């Protein structure tokens, strides 16, 4: 396994403190598994190694869950329609996703993280932030922690991971993508401005194609262009988000690594083989409500709001939600509310839908929900 980066890149872990005693500099590592689902498939089936692998169900409605680097060379990307991937790469091997297996590998990788720090914030099955300002293994630098983690992932799972080391989460996220696959990149505090200035604004996490296009209308193509704009100008262009962009252009991100972040919502959705009228969604809504209810039972909190999501044949998305006086207390209540939300969809009988989803949100601690009942007694 080739580990990229040099010892001179190390971010030292000796804590620095301001006069008030608060930490001056965090040491953040962002670890991102390389083509995770596809790599697991190639690891477990030697016949797939070196071949363009697309993790997806075949079919007109299916989307790509992951693509190996061999497939990416043909332009195949995650979230792309499977039929598009097949057109771009006719030689691709399509493998149906096995999330039970992927979750097992993800748990093994998480255990490796936790050997080094308790401050682990998972973003998905294949990536996480780690705060290693202080680490549990006594390694002297953040870079060495990142190297050790990548070595252990390789030794114990036979999979590669890329990592970024930086003074904050924003920079670490960019750094982890810099030398993919199987790479390590470090951004030193003294090098932040020189690193950021030439970057296209599209490299900023959260800046999608629509926002990037709007920025270009204002003559903003690089982070350096953002840096040249004052706060009032950016807020005038982008509202509250302009303030965030003003900070990121300067490499400022004070958000901490938050371990075991509670989910804001639990949901499940299904895409139909053919577009169907709203009246024919009963069975799917019942199945999705059952999945969501079972998943919510693993959370100690109580969900207050039921959400119905729909996507039309024309790809227009809409949601309807309801917060009852009392949270749903059974799968039957959840299903009844979800089915009832359809009545708030004001569309003609000829409208067809390609996707439906059911969700629970607005979570509260169980004790918060118990207080009103106690007062009522």
UniProtKB/TrEMBL annotation:
The record marks 37 as: Substrate discrimination. It comes from the Bacteria. The keyword Aminoacyl-tRNA synthetase does not apply. Its cofactor is Mg(2+). The active site is at residue 127. Keywords: Cytoplasm, DNA damage, DNA repair, DNA replication, DNA-binding, DNA-directed DNA polymerase, Magnesium, Metal-binding, Mutator protein, Nucleotidyltransferase, Transferase. One of its GO terms (molecular function) is damaged DNA binding. It is found in: Cytoplasm. Binds 2 magnesium ions per subunit. One of its GO terms (biological process) is error-prone translesion synthesis. Mg(2+) binds at residues 32, 126. CDD domains: PolY_Pol_IV_kappa. The keyword Glycosyltransferase does not apply. It catalyses: DNA(n) + a 2'-deoxyribonucleoside 5'-triphosphate = DNA(n+1) + diphosphate. Its EC number is 2.7.7.7. GO terms for cellular component: cytosol. SUPFAM superfamilies: DNA/RNA polymerases, Lesion bypass DNA polymerase (Y-family), little finger domain. Its main location: cytoplasm. Residues 28-208 form the UmuC domain. Poorly processive, error-prone DNA polymerase involved in untargeted mutagenesis. Copies undamaged DNA at stalled replication forks, which arise in vivo from mismatched or misaligned primer ends. These misaligned primers can be extended by PolIV. Exhibits no 3'-5' exonuclease (proofreading) activity. May be involved in translesional synthesis, in conjunction with the beta clamp from PolIII. Monomer. Belongs to the DNA polymerase type-Y family. This is DNA polymerase IV. It comes from Granulicella sibirica. The lineage of its organism: Bacteria, Pseudomonadati, Acidobacteriota, Terriglobia, Terriglobales.
